[in-house]
Amino acid sequence: MKRLRVAIQGERGSFSEEAATKLLGPQTSVLPCATFAAAFSLVRGRRADRCLVPIENTLAGSVHENYDLLLEHGFWVEAEVNLRIRHMLIARRGVALRNIKKAHSHPVALAQCRKFFARHPKIEPLTAYDTAGSVKMIVEQGSTDAAAVAGRAAAAAYGARIVARDIEDDRENFTRFLLISRAARQRPDANKTSIVFTTKNVPGALFRCLATFALRDINLTKIESRPWRGRPWEYLFYLDFLGRPEATPGRQALSHLAELTSFLRVLGCYPRSRLR
Predict the structure, then answer these.
(1) Domains of the chain
(2) Is 221 an active-site residue?
(3) Residues 6-22: pLDDT tens digits?
């Protein structure tokens, strides 16, 4: 069987690669990209079968860029996976914690470890584009006084050493990732649907849209508003609900919603990923 080629943002050993392995298995062929846009472009150009991107974190909130890219490319959400984020302080082998003067990582990761840096004021946090990429950098540079904040997989990927474990401030730190494909694919066990819509800016408009789900006892798990590019002060609403678009409650709700909106699109229907 052909190995699935999955584009991710970040280097090998990143949290995105961990999420891909958790969702699809270790046989997955991961294609690292410098940006989210590059990962989507690989799928667009058929150089990747899928891309896997973070869409929200329980502490940092939504990854707005990926909402915009999903709509821009017209792709389909095929699956989701929740990954527990555990931050490690990682250095080259032979480097001890007492020797470390700076720690490189993505700004979100550094922000999630503020208490650790408060306890170790001699270590200066320095921002970088990627967690695993920071580990790769300090290993390649042969740094003896620098470390990186990343996951366990990054230490293994680059032959580095974990000098401090679980340094994040909050243990309830999870990131939700979406598996994106070019064509619409719905798995038999799909039970969660993502949509995007816009409505007129008139009193009660959003209330009436949301009521189409409440009237049918459909549970909403997420709602996010994003500016509609090219239309100042107009917004797109991204919404997730439990159910399938073709099942009676979902079908009726979407039909009713279509009457109240000027734009409505189903982004995908996929199996819900439990938090733990």
Answers:
(1) 5-84+173-181 (3.40.190.10), 88-164 (3.40.190.10), 192-270 (3.30.70.260)
(2) no
(3) 999 999 999 999 999 99
